[in-house]
Amino acid sequence: MTKLEEHLEGIINVFHRYSSRVGDPDTLSKGELKQLITRELKNSLENTKDQATIDKIFQDLDADKDGQVTFDEFVVLVSRVLRTAHVNIHKE
Predict the structure, then answer these.
(1) Where do the EF-hand domain residues begin and end (predicted)?
(2) Three-class SS state of 62
(3) Burial class (CB in 10 A: 0-12, 13-18, 19+), 27
């Protein structure tokens, strides 16, 4: 695998590491999303321990309002974090 393919697989693996804990193994509950964010994105997102911040992120990601975050919905968060990281790299 190329380096990019390895990183893509890593994103999938991180999603499944958290999504398989409660309920549907292919979606994230709010609690699972909170654990993923606080453990995996603590240096990329601000206020990751603030419940209001987690609630807002969850509401923004849960496009179909079913109370779960699918992988497709999760990719939106990954894309936002990646865009922000890209902008920040150019500031340095």
Answers:
(1) 49-84
(2) coil
(3) buried
Token pair of 54 as six digits: 């987690």
Helix, strand or coil, per DSSP, at residue 52: helix
CA distance 16 to 2: 21
From residue 69, how far is each of 7, 58, 76, 81, 91 by CA, in Å? Answer: 21, 7, 10, 16, 32
Contacts of residue 30, Cβ cutoff 8 Å, sequence gap at least 6: 54, 55, 58, 67
By the 8 A CB rule, do 29 and 68 touch?
A: yes
Confidence (pTM): 0.89
Predicted pLDDT of residue 45: 87
Closest CA to 34 of 64, 77, 72, 84: 77
| pLDDT tens digit sequence for 26-85 | 999 999 999 999 999 998 888 888 899 999 999 999 999 999 999 999 999 999 999 999
